[in-house]
Every structure is written in structure tokens, then in C-alpha cells.
Amino acid sequence: MSSIFDKAHAVKEATRILAQFSITAPPVPVEKIAKQLGAILQYAPLDDELSGMAYVKDGHPIIGVNAMHHPNRQRFTIAHEIAHLVLHRDYITAQVHVDKAFTLKRDPVAASGTDALEIEANAFAAQLLMPADWVKQAFATELELDDETALSVVARKFRVSTSAIQNRIMQMF
Length: 173
Prior knowledge:
53% helix; 4-stranded mixed sheet
């Protein structure tokens, strides 16, 4: 990537956070991680296209989460906002960073490579919630992406959506 942002660095940082808090199996306790990093979590009903936000006020990191979204989506939002706190603190200290709806899929903005902060935060969140090694271990046999039963079981184990686990698998191979 030609910018100062780097997906590999994001993955490395997410892996470091897991090790720092001795997390070795899913589901990853993202709320606990956020709190241990000093963040205040605030849940509020927001417009559907707003997933969350992160900012630092008076030296205290705050993560806002859309209370109207599914708990699995909230978990991804928290992981994504933790990424902004860990990787982009200087950027979010200067202003509130609001995240419109995002997925693990590359949306048109992400696909164009123009929003490096979001691409990096999504890579961090995916690794934090679904570390590649854990996902590989979760499937005892060769995985078919259309094996809905296996995907559903693993998604429940990680407390993510089936589409999130499918997207994660596609990113890994």
C-alpha cells in the first residue's frame, strides 16, 4: 500500500492484543478488551447506516455503538473502533471518527483503496474476532464455502455472522 497505512501491520497489532490479554479461543471478549484499553463503551440508537464511532475526549477514549444493530454486528463495530484507538489514535483525538455501515466485503470506497484507515481497521477487526489460525482450526475437514451447516456452527462459535466467516475465509485464501 502506498500510504502510511498497512493491513499487515493491522493484523500484527490485533494478534498482539490477543496475546497481551491472553485470549486463546473464541469468542473474543471485545467489550472487555475495549475496557481494558481504557475505552468507555456507549450504546445508543443511531441511524441504521451508522455503525459506530470512536473519539478521545479529555484523554479518555470513547467507543459509540449502534444499539439497534444485531449483537454480532456490534461486536465487529467494537473491534473496528478498537482498531482506530490502537492504530489511529492521533487521527481520532483531533475529531470524532464516525463509521458508516461497513462489512468485511470491500465496498466501493474500500475497493478503490482511497480510505486506508477503514481498510486497516477492517483488517484489524477481522483478525481480532476471527484470527486466521483459529478459523483454520475450527474446520476439521476441508471447507466448502457453500457448506451452510459448518459455516453456521463456526460463526456461532466466533459470535459473528455467517457472511463474516465466509468473507474471512475468502480473505485467507
